[in-house]
Write a structure and sequence with these properties.
Chain lengths: 78, 226
């Protein structure tokens, strides 16, 4: 497996949707390629960081205000 | 596989289905439950597209109202949330069109770029790199980084990786093909990784790049912390 081939299936590797035989090939490649190992590891971390940190926080007071507005509009609709 | 999934889907009814039936029967409190369940996610999607807090608040309200008014059109072939996101995406794009009067706005904007599709930075990251920043610094870094991506990449990443929608659901919510979602997701992930590397890589001077290529001899700091 080349680095380009690895990169093409990077998403499948991250999402763990890889066939068993390809998984073995990937492991062999990662053992000898530090670059691809870093790319895989840091891409996983990228996703994890965005998943764990809400960047567009909706404060409770704003959420309450919007919620009331939505439900008021809905009660008048139809 | 798909047959097994669809059979399982038939047997296990999504909890939203019962709520929607109650709303259709005139029970507004059931809709209240659905709004509470999804308002934060919808707000986030609207923020990713409009990049404007006021617009995102308006989009969220309009999307929930529109979904309520059009609930009879919801067929139940997809998840309620996917259907809701599709409405919010359309509302967000409409809002952008209003802001940039006359200029065409679509999910395909700027996606032709190849920038950042090939990894260049191979330095390993520090362990728990986010701990080197306080909460507001980190939020700023994450916000700035994702805002630098084309809109069509940001939204795919937000739906697929942050919200946890499947590739098929993301495609449906955005009106894109599955291959288009896959290609955008890969590029979004790689571009974000590349940009975050600037902040999160180990603080070792120059050596780190060449060290990363030598297997088993990665950068460890070794007293040369910058």
């Amino acid at each position: 497996m080349t680095c380009t081939e690895f990169l093409e299936i990077l998403d499948d590797v991250i999402d763990e949707s890889i066939a068993a035989e390809t998984r073995a090939e990937i492991e062999v490649h990662l053992k000898k390629c530090g670059h691809c190992e870093v790319v895989l590891d840091t891409t996983r971390k990228t996703i994890e960081i965005y998943r764990c940190h809400e960047i567009y926080e909706l404060p409770t007071d704003v959420s309450e205000r919007l919620h009331v507005a939505i439900m008021t509009k809905c009660s008048k609709a139809k | 596989m798909s047959t097994i999934q669809s059979l399982a889907g038939q047997n296990e009814q999504h909890p939203d289905v019962a709520l929607i039936e109650r709303v259709r029967a005139g029970d507004l409190s059931a809709y209240d439950t659905l709004v509470r369940k999804y308002e934060r996610q919808l707000f986030r999607i609207a923020q990713h597209i409009t990049q404007n807090r006021e617009d995102a608040e308006d989009v969220m309200q309009d999307a929930f109202l529109k979904a309520y008014e059009k609930l009879d059109q919801f067929q139940g072939n997809s998840k309620f949330y996917t259907w809701l996101v599709r409405i919010a995406v359309n509302e967000s794009l409409m809002r952008l069109r209003k802001r940039r009067t006359g200029k065409l706005v679509s999910m395909d904007e700027d996606v032709q770029t190849e920038e950042g599709s090939v990894p260049r930075d191979f330095a390993d990251w520090a362990p728990n790199p986010e701990q080197n920043y306080n909460q507001s610094e980190l939020a700023e870094i994450l916000k700035k980084t994702i805002q630098g991506l084309p809109q069509g990449f940001r939204v795919v990443f937000a739906l697929r990786d942050v919200d946890g929608l499947s590739t098929e659901e993301t495609a449906e919510a955005l009106g894109l093909s599955v291959p288009a979602v896959k290609s955008r997701l890969l590029r979004a992930r790689l571009q974000l990784r590349e940009r975050l590397s600037r902040y999160f890589k180990r603080k070792t001077p120059a050596a780190s790049q060449s060290q990363a290529s030598a297997k088993g001899n990665g950068p460890r700091g070794d007293g040369v912390e910058a």
